[in-house]
Design a protein that fits this description.
The structure is a homodimer. Chain A is mainly alpha-helical. Chain A is 81% helix and 0% strand. Chain A contains 3 helices and no strands. Chain A starts with 6 loop residues before the first helix and ends with a helix.
């Protein structure tokens, strides 16, 4: 019995998984932004401060820990959260103007 | 019966959801990077081209469509994929050197 390993088949299988992960990421991100829109509206209505540095710091610490336990680079997890928060702030500014 | 709405309680509930979404994102990202590491190793072993512009174009188109149907800004979905791909390329370069 020969072992017919085709690297292109294997690549295609990996890519299907990657596409599934990306679809999951997009749907969770969509729901996350729906939530931050609600937060933005709540803060505007009740005059709550737009940003909370203490909250951001604890979010970063928590995500770095989660990253470590799940074999993800903690620096990437932090960069990722910063990328998302920048987008949220931009959305809030657009909503205000 | 009075309606005792506390905006800070409501904010705290939203934040718990956001933290749950972030934890899900981190875990899926961890798994996605484990996959792209396997892809990198496969490409190196079988001398497959490191990047595939046709693949990237179809990934972007697909994610933009998914974003539209899930109420996420398609431009953000594209920026997000570019952010991830930049990180993957950096990982591949580090692995090679």
């Amino acid at each position: 019995m020969t072992d017919q390993f085709d690297p292109l088949d294997e690549l295609s299988r990996h890519r299907t998984s990657i596409d599934n992960f990306d679809a999951a990421l997009i749907h969770i991100l969509a729901e996350r932004f729906r939530k931050t829109k609600q937060v933005g509206a709540l803060k505007a209505k009740y005059n709550l401060p737009p940003s909370d540095k203490g909250r951001e710091k604890s979010q970063i610490e928590h995500l770095r820990k989660l990253a470590k336990t799940s074999d993800l680079d903690p620096d990437f997890a932090e960069k990722f959260l910063e990328f998302i928060i920048r987008e949220v702030i931009q959305h809030h500014n657009q909503a205000r103007s």
